[in-house]
Amino acid sequence: MSGERRSAAELIAQLKEQAAMSNREIAAALGRDPSLVSQIVRGKKSGAHFVRALSELAGTGTITHRPQRRRTKAGAVANVRGRAGEPAHAPADLEPNARYVPVPARGRYVAEKTHYLRSGGRIYATQFPKTRGAKGNDAGWQRVARQLRSAARRRYGTKERPPMRVSFDITFSDGRQMRLGEKGGYDIQKVVAAITAHAGGIEGWIKDQGRHRYLTLDTSTVAVTGVQISVTPWQGTP
To answer: What sections of the sequence does the record tag as coiled-coil (predicted)?
Structure first.
């Protein structure tokens, strides 16, 4: 049966089985609240409006055709229903994991597309402003840290993921590029533990790695402008 003919619930089940995606990750890729995905899974909603996007996500690992939100006759985005006992409200401006790449604005970071691999792996990419200390840097590093913690989870619901390895591709404002984990990647659990123990968090940990690797790289004067995280299953025993 082709992906186009499957129901939204069947496609969600496929994404959970093949890519180890959680309801939250699927919802983020669609730009919707996780409760909607849960309702589709439970049969409360058909999710027919999302079949095209879910089929693309299952087939390619990302979404380029995001479903449009319902609109009023006046053309405004319609309110979404609130929780039990709560009024309807405007939809939240969620941070989707599969976002179209806009032209970076000064002082803002760009959260690029996330690719969900059938092996359960992930490829995350984030761009940062070139100016050190610019507005948006903190939001970017928070996103990177959140992605890494999510990728390190061993269980999503009832599904257990295999041990994962991680590598980083870092770009600095002077154009220098650095790869961490070039020899097959690092044990993601050990990386998360090392970052947790580092006083500077993930930003400080990455900059320390660069400072120790390259004598000509002064991480105190150049800013990180790009971080790509590649998460893949270990081949064999880690």
So the answer is: 5-32
